[in-house]
Amino acid sequence: MDNTRLNHIVSKVDDMPVLPGRIHKIIEITEDPDSTIDDLEKEILKDQSLTSKILRLANSAYYGYPRKINTVSQATILLGFQTIKSMALASTVSKMMAGELKGYALEKNDLWTQSQTCAIISRYIAKKIKITNPETAYIAGLLRDIGKTILNHYVEKEYNTIVNRVEFSKVSFLEAEEEILGFNHAQIGEKIAEKWNFPKDLVEAIGLHHTPEESTIDPKLVSIVHIADAITMIMGIGIGADGLKYNFSPFALDTLNFTPSDVEQLISLSHDLIIDKDSFDLI
């Protein structure tokens, strides 16, 4: 990896919007075992937009609760602290991911739609294999391509060279990024997650979602995001330039004990997971 260039780009990560103080506070409250529902409600109510999104999610078809949820505290009881944390984070990063990324041939909102799809599939897989906190998988899936928002400018300048490399040398877009720029979007995403002081397992899942076999902290989490990412691309969601060549890592499949027919089932199920526009567009 070209460290000089990587450091130059990482210095650009400083231009990345920091997580707003309120979001940090909400994450802090959800992580503190001594926090109460009242503590969380007080913080959420300071943000009108987040309050309305949480109430909409609690009342969506996805949860199918028989009576109307009118307060944040009722919604928190129904959704749980971890889901509230995911929503707070998602409502912030959706703004960062909403723009057009010419370097990746992604239209306005494409990266967001793709990231939300990957997040929902990641959470589903995590629940299916019964990992302790499926919301960690949701957040990892949501942020796995956050590095593209920073690399976009550099990729745009080298776009033709990268695409030619992909077409004529039969390498993946990720490998071409690395060859031509000296680093790839997953590595930049990892740096952003570190900057945001995320736990090491989350940082690793973002940095290694294309190379799960390199995982040392939580191979299951990295494998979940890898598979959800590949399924998102296979479904053609906001595919962009780098969706041209996607394979499932044998390591990821082995780690999760998935057979090819499990994956086929997941692909057809994934269409149903994202069809509920209410749940999908809430953030």
UniProtKB/TrEMBL annotation:
Start and end residues of each HD domain: 111-234
Cross-referenced SUPFAM superfamilies: HD-domain/PDEase-like (SSF109604)
Superkingdom field: Bacteria
Ranges where the HDOD domain occurs: 16-212
Protein name: HDIG domain protein
Record lineage: Bacteria, Bacillati, Bacillota, Tissierellia, Tissierellales
